[in-house]
Amino acid sequence: MARISVVIPTFNEKENITKLLIRLNEILPSLSFIVVDDNSPDGTEESLKKLNLKNLELIIRKNEKGLGSAIKTGLSRALELESEYIVTMDADFSHDPSYLPGMLEMAKTGYGLVIGSRYVKGGGIENWPLKRRIVSKGANFLFRTAMRSYIHDNTSNYRVYSTNAAKEALNCNSADGYEFQICAVFRILKAGIKIGEYPIIFRDREIGKSKLSNVEIFRWFKFLLSLLASS
Fold first, then answer.
1. Is the separation of the CB atoms in 217 and 135 below 8 Å?
2. What is the pTM of this model?
3. CA 223 from chain center: how many Å?
4. Vertex 33, ends 28 and 34: CA angle to 5°?
5. CA distance 106 to 161
6. Which has the least CB within 10 A, 24, 195, 199, 210?
7. What's the mean pLDDT when you consider all of the chain?
């Protein structure tokens, strides 16, 4: 049976991550979990250890922070474990675990990367404020236009990577924040690896606060300009 690893970055997700892992285990008990936690002060580590899951590896990073950096740490570890497919997803239940079996089936039909997409037919967003919708739509429009990407949702973190696609994504050496998502798509497209989109309904988190700040948005746009200059 193919090894499937699920990489989940966390920072102050105590209330969400334990419930998410339990739910994922119910849906696909054969999964392996790699949780990369940036030394959360809210007790995330203790909560995860209490679950006593044999299929969970917890990586605590003391001196590093950033979504992209955490994902790269998880991807690298999953490759070391010889995972055939590597899932990335958020810890806050905005990415519904019930979509994962369908995304994995799609990956097995020849896609090197499957993106859980909000912007294809059947996809959508619930409970997002207007500002977040504008930023997300605008970011995807700019990336699609600048990079000639045929992908509609280039910024979603709900993904299934093949081994080859994960290796390409790890070439994003300087993308340590939210910009990692577009860098990974850029690298995978350049490598000629097939990308597919699976429709999902994205539901805004019910517990905790979003980590996306104005500083992160600025860094994202700055990184897009650097990609455009290098392409």
1. yes
2. 0.89
3. 18
4. 160
5. 11
6. 210
7. 89
- The range of the structural domain enclosing residue 143 comes to 4-230
Per DSSP, 176 falls in state: -
Alpha carbons 102 and 85: distance in angstroms, whole number: 13
The DSSP result for 1-29, as a single string, is ---EEEEEEESS-HHHHHHHHHHHHHH-T
Task: Provide the pLDDT confidence category of residue 75 given band limits of 50, 70 and 90.
Answer: very high
The pLDDT assigned to 228 comes to 65
CB atoms within 10 A of CB 135: 18
The Cα-based distances of 137 to 2, 38, 117, 186, 211 in angstroms read: 35, 29, 12, 18, 18
101-115 as b/e: b if 16+ CB within 10 A: eebbebbeeebbbbb
Residue type at position 76: S
Name the more confident of 209 and 123. 123
C-alpha to C-alpha distance for 185 and 7, rounded to whole angstroms: 17
Arithmetic mean of pLDDT, 90-119: 96
Please compute the mean of the pLDDT values over residues 193-202 and round it to a whole number.
97
Angle of the 67-80 helix axis to the 180-190 helix axis, nearest 10? 50
Q: Which residues, in sequence order, are bridge partners of residue 195?
A: 113
User: What is the tally of structural domains in the chain?
Assistant: 1
Q: Is residue 227's pLDDT more than 80?
A: no
* Locus of tokens 């580590």: 45
pLDDT band at residue 165 under the 50/70/90 scheme: very high
